[in-house]
Design brief:
The complex is a heterodimer of chains A (283) and B (509). Chain A is α/β, with parallel strands linked by helices. Chain A has one domain: 3-Layer(aba) Sandwich (Rossmann fold), CATH 3.40.50. Chain A contains nine helices and eight strands. The longest helix of chain A is centred in the first third of the chain and has 17 residues. Chain A is globular, with a radius of gyration of 18 Å. With 509 residues, chain B is of the alpha/beta class. Chain B folds into three domains: 148 residues, Pyruvate-ferredoxin Oxidoreductase, domain 3 (3-Layer(aba) Sandwich); 234 residues, Rossmann fold (3-Layer(aba) Sandwich), CATH 3.40.50; 103 residues, Rossmann fold, CATH 3.40.50. Chain B has 17 helices and 20 strands. A seven-stranded mixed sheet of chain B has the order 5-4-1-3-2-13-6, sandwiched between helices. Chain B has a seven-stranded mixed sheet with strand order 8-7-9-10-12-11-18, with helices on both faces. In chain B, α1 packs across α4, α6 crosses α7 and α14 crosses α17. The model of chain B has no long low-confidence stretch (mean pLDDT 97). The chains are: A alpha/beta (283), B alpha/beta (509). Chains A and B meet through β2, α3, α5 and α9 of A and α8, α9 and β14 of B. β2 of chain A pairs parallel with β14 of chain B.
Chain lengths: 283, 509
C-alpha cells in the first residue's frame, strides 16, 4: 500500500477548524497538542500515539490532531479504545469524548473501564449539553435547563461523573477547566503517564446553548497535589453537584492509585516486550 | 445398519457423559454417529435428552423412531416410550440407583454391552473421559457393573475406518486457530457460547486471547478497535447479541477495518426458545446495519465445512478489509458429528492494511478523504460509494475460487432440493438411494451463478429450510427471478429428522 504522509506541522493537520469561534474546544485541543508534544520530548514516540474519538463537538479533535486514530461511533469511544490497546499494547491510547458520549449513550462502558483498568486515558469535554444536535440535555445538565426537547426544563438529578468514577474503581480521576490551558496540559501529561485507566473531565462553556453553566471560573479552586484517600476524594467530589449554585468546584487530581492493569496479563505482557503487536508473535 | 438411541434424564444427571463415552467408543471402533442434544433452558432438573444415531455408513442426522431408550429418570420413559420401535429396548435407571453420582457411567456401560462393544474399549474410554478425577475407580466399577447387567443385542464389532468426532462449536475454534487468530471477543449467548468456551480453553497453547466485555455493543466496537490496531479478530454471538452489534457492522462498512462475526442462530423473535434451533436469521445477516456496504455471508452445513469456512472468512475479511458473517445455528453448534474426512489445508491470513505504530493511520465512522479526515464533499462521497461497490465486485471474483455451492445425491435427477446450513445432514440422509439431487448453498452473499443453472435444469425444485418464511427461497428469487413453489419448512425449534423429511419429500415428488 502507498504510504501517504499527512500535511501539517507540530501535530496539527491542515484541516480547517469548524468549531464555533470562541468555543473552549479550541483550548482543549491546544492543551492536548501541547501535552503530546511535551510527552514526545520526554521520550514517548509520536507514532505510538493512537486517539479514539466519539461523536459530538469534541469529536472533531480527530481531524485536527495529526496522530493515528479511530473516529468511533457515538458512545463507543471507550470500548473501541480498549480494543486498540488489546490490538497493540505498545500504543499509547487516548480517548477524546464528550459528556453525551460518555455519560449518556456510553455510561456502561465508562463504568466497566473504571473497573477493568485498561492503560488508556479518557478526556471528557463536558459542556453539560448535546451541542452538536442543538442543545438537548445530557445526564450532567443542570436541573431547570430548558431545551427544545425539554421545554419545561430538566427535572432529573445530574449524574456526578467524578463521584461515579471514584466509586467504581477508577484509578486516576481529575477535573480541569478548559480555559486553563497550562493546567489542563499538565494534568493530561500525568494522566497519560499513569498506568491504568485515567479519567480527566474538562469542564467547558458552551457559548451557544447551555449558557447558564458558563463563566464559572470564580467558583473553581485548585486541589493540592498531595496524595489523598479514596474517602477524602469522594468527599471532595460531592462539593459540586453540576447544578447551578454558589458551591465551590474543586479542580485538579482527586485521586490516583496504582493497581492491576487490564493489558498487563498473559500474552499482552509478552507483546509489550516485543514491541511489534500481535504480528510479532510466532504461532 | 442404523440405530437411534435416546438417552434422557434431568439436567445435571449427566446424559451428555453417557452419549459422550458411548460416541467416543463407537467412533474409535470405526462407526459413524450423530448425536442430537435437546434441552430446555434449565441448569438442574427438567427433562433433557440426546438422540444418538449410529451407523456403519456416514450419517449426519437422527431419526424419529427409536431402537432403544436409556432412561435416567421416570419421566424419560413416560415421554418417549411411544417413540420406541417394536422390540426396542429400555435400560432403566432403577437397576443402578445404588451407583449414585455414577448412575450415568453405569448406564453408559450397559449401553455399550447392548451394542456389543468390547469391555476393554469401555474401560479405556471411561478412563480417558474421567482422567484426573478422584472418583475414577468407582466410575470404572459402575461401568463394569452396567456392562455385566445387560445382554448383547447388536454385536457391533470393530470396523476398519478412522472416524473422529466434532461439534460445530469446536469447529469454529479450529477454524480460528488454523487462521492464527489473535483476539476473540464474545458475550455469552446460547448457542454461540460453546465456541467461546472452546476458544478460551485453547488460548494459552495457541498464542491468542479471548476477552468477554460487558455487552455485545462493546464486543463489536472493541473488535474493530483491535482490528484497526493490527490484530486478526473475530466475534461470536446469537441473534439478540447480533442485533446489538448492528451499529458496529455499519461502522465496519465505513471504516473498512476487517471483521468476522460468527452468528449462531436460535429461534426468535426476542429471547425466543434459547436452547433450540432455527434458520431464522439469514435475512438479518444479509441486511443488518444501516447504509450500503459490501459484506460476505457464508453458511457452513457441518463441522468440517465450519473449519474451512471460518478460515475463508478470516482470509477474505483481512484481504478485502471487509465484513464477513459466518452463519450457523444451534443444530450445527451443539450436535456431535462424526466424519472420516479432514478439513482442507488452511489459507494463510495476512494483515495487509496500514496499522498505527508504523505511521499516521486514521479510520473513521464519518465519510472521509484519503488521510481518513472527515469530508462533507459530495464528489468524494460519491467516489467512496462507488469504491465500495467496486470492492464488492472484487470480493465476488475472489469468492468464486471457493466452494460456494455443493451438489449431492443423484447427479442426473430432475428433482432438485435446495437448502443451506444445518439441514444438510438430514437432507443427505433422507435422499439416500432416492431420485433426488441436493444443491447446498454455502455462500449466501455473494451468491453463485450455479444456483440458477441447476434450477433451470430441474423439473421440480423443492426448498427445504428450518424457518417460517423460506428466507433462502426469497434470496434466490431476488437473485434469479425464479420462485420456488415447493417448500418444506419446519419452524417449531426442532431440526429435521431424516426419516420424517424423507416422507415429506416423497409427498412433494
Amino acid at each position: 500500500m502507498k504510504k501517504i504522509e499527512m500535511p501539517g506541522t507540530d501535530l496539527r493537520t491542515n484541516k480547517a477548524i469548524t468549531w464555533c469561534p470562541g468555543c473552549p474546544d479550541h483550548m482543549i485541543l491546544e492543551s492536548s497538542r501541547r501535552a503530546l508534544l511535551s510527552l514526545m520530548k520526554q521520550g514517548y514516540k509520536g507514532k505510538n500515539f493512537a486517539m479514539v474519538c466519539g461523536v459530538g463537538c469534541h469529536g472533531k479533535t480527530f481531524d485536527y490532531l495529526n496522530v493515528s486514530g479511530f473516529y468511533a461511533l457515538h458512545g463507543r469511544a471507550i470500548p473501541t479504545a480498549i480494543g486498540v490497546k488489546l490490538g497493540n499494547p505498545n500504543l499509547n491510547v487516548m480517548v477524546f469524548a464528550g459528556d453525551g458520549d460518555t455519560y449518556s449513550e456510553g455510561i456502561a462502558h465508562f463504568i466497566h473501564a473504571c473497573r477493568t483498568n485498561p492503560d488508556i486515558t479518557l478526556l471528557v469535554n463536558n459542556n453539560q449539553a448535546f451541542s452538536l444536535t442543538t442543545g438537548q440535555a445530557t445526564v450532567t445538565s443542570q436541573i431547570g435547563y430548558k431545551t427544545k426537547a425539554e421545554p419545561l426544563g430538566v427535572s432529573n438529578l445530574p449524574v456526578n461523573p467524578i463521584y461515579l468514577a471514584l466509586s467504581v474503581g477508577c484509578s486516576f480521576v481529575a477535573r480541569c477547566n478548559a480555559r486553563d490551558i497550562e493546567h489542563t496540559q499538565l494534568v493530561i501529561e500525568q494522566a497519560v503517564a499513569h498506568k491504568g485507566f485515567s479519567f480527566v473531565e474538562i469542564l467547558q462553556d458552551c457559548i451557544v446553548f447551555n449558557l447558564e453553566v458558563n463563566e464559572r471560573d470564580k467558583h473553581m479552586y485548585r486541589l493540592s497535589d498531595k496524595k489523598r484517600s479514596l474517602g477524602k476524594a469522594l468527599k471532595l467530589a460531592r462539593e459540586f453537584d453540576y447544578n447551578i449554585g454558589k458551591e465551590k468546584i474543586p479542580m485538579g487530581i482527586f485521586y490516583k492509585e496504582e493497581r492491576g492493569v487490564l493489558d498487563d496479563r498473559g500474552l499482552l505482557l509478552k507483546l509489550k516486550k516485543m514491541k511489534k503487536g500481535w504480528k510479532g508473535l510466532r504461532k | 445398519m442404523r440405530l437411534n438411541i435416546l438417552i434422557g434424564g434431568k439436567a445435571g444427571q449427566g446424559i451428555n457423559k453417557v452419549s459422550g463415552i458411548v460416541s467416543q467408543a463407537l467412533v474409535d471402533s470405526g462407526y459413524f454417529i450423530f448425536n442430537y442434544r435437546d434441552y430446555p433452558s434449565v441448569i438442574r432438573g427438567g427433562h433433557n435428552f440426546n438422540v444418538l444415531s449410529v451407523s456403519d455408513k456416514k450419517i449426519s442426522s437422527h431419526e424419529s423412531r427409536l431402537d432403544g431408550i436409556i432412561a435416567l429418570d421416570e419421566l424419560t420413559k413416560k415421554i418417549h416410550e411411544s417413540e420406541l420401535k417394536k422390540g426396542g429396548f429400555v435400560v432403566d435407571y432403577k437397576e443402578f440407583v445404588d451407583f449414585g453420582i455414577n448412575l450415568n457411567i453405569a448406564l453408559a456401560g450397559a449401553l455399550m454391552k447392548v451394542l456389543g462393544i468390547d469391555k476393554e474399549v469401555l474401560v479405556n474410554t471411561v478412563k480417558k473421559s474421567m482422567k484426573g478425577k478422584l472418583t475414577l475407580g468407582e466410575s470404572i466399577k459402575a461401568a463394569e457393573a452396567g456392562y455385566k447387567s445387560q445382554d448383547e443385542r447388536y454385536g457391533l464389532k470393530k470396523l476398519r475406518g478412522k472416524v473422529s468426532l466434532l461439534s460445530g462449536s469446536k469447529a469454529i475454534a479450529l477454524g480460528a486457530i488454523n487462521s492464527k487468530i489473535d483476539l476473540y471477543f464474545a458475550y455469552p449467548m446460547t448457542p454461540s457460547t460453546n465456541a467461546l468456551h472452546e476458544l478460551a480453553s485453547r488460548q494459552s497453547e495457541n498464542n491468542f486471547m479471548v476477552f468477554q466485555p460487558e455487552n455485545e455493543i462493546s464486543v463489536v466496537n472493541m473488535a474493530l478497535g483491535a482490528s484497526f490496531a493490527g490484530a486478526k479478530v473475530m466475534v461470536g454471538t446469537s441473534g439478540g447479541g447480533f442485533d446489538l452489534m448492528a451499529e458496529g457492522l455499519s461502522l465496519q462498512g465505513q471504516s473498512e477495518v476487517p471483521l468476522v462475526v460468527y452468528l449462531a442462530s436460535r429461534p426468535g423473535p426476542a429471547t425466543g426458545i434459547p436452547t433450540y434451533t432455527m434458520q431464522g436469521d439469514l435475512d438479518l445477516a444479509l441486511r443488518s446495519g444501516h447504509g450500503e456496504f459490501p459484506r460476505i455471508v457464508v453458511a457452513p452445513g457441518d463441522p468440517i465445512e465450519t473449519i474451512e469456512k471460518t478460515n475463508e472468512a478470516l482470509y477474505l475479511a483481512n484481504k478485502f478489509n471487509c465484513l464477513v458473517i459466518l452463519l450457523s445455528d444451534k443444530h450445527i453448534a451443539e450436535s456431535e458429528f462424526s466424519s472420516n474426512e479432514r478439513a482442507g489445508k488452511p489459507l494463510a491470513v495476512r494483515v495487509v492494511r496500514k496499522v498505527p505504530g508504523e505511521g499516521v493511520v486514521k479510520a473513521s465512522s464519518y465519510e472521509h478523504d484519503q488521510y481518513g479526515l472527515t469530508i462533507e464533499n459530495v464528489e468524494i462521497a460519491r467516489k467512496n460509494a462507488d469504491a465500495r461497490l467496486e470492492k464488492y465486485k472484487q470480493i465476488q471474483k475472489e469468492c468464486n475460487k471457493f466452494e460456494m455451492v455443493k451438489v449431492y445425491g443423484k447427479k442426473d435427477s430432475k428433482n432438485l432440493i435446495i437448502g443451506w446450513g444445518s439441514t444438510k445432514g438430514a437432507i443427505i440422509d433422507a435422499i439416500d438411494g432416492l431420485d433426488f439431487k441436493f444443491l447446498q448453498v454455502l455462500y449466501m452473499k455473494p451468491s453463485s451463478r450455479r444456483i440458477k443453472k441447476e434450477m433451470l435444469k430441474a423439473k421440480k425444485v423443492i426448498l427445504v429450510e428450518n424457518n417460517l418464511t423460506g428466507q433462502l427461497g426469497r434470496l434466490i428469487r431476488e437473485k434469479t427471478g425464479l420462485k420456488i413453489e415447493n417448500r418444506i419448512l419446519k419452524y417449531d425449534g426442532l431440526p429435521f429428522r431424516s426419516d420424517e423429511l424423507r416422507e415429506e419429500l416423497m409427498k412433494v415428488r
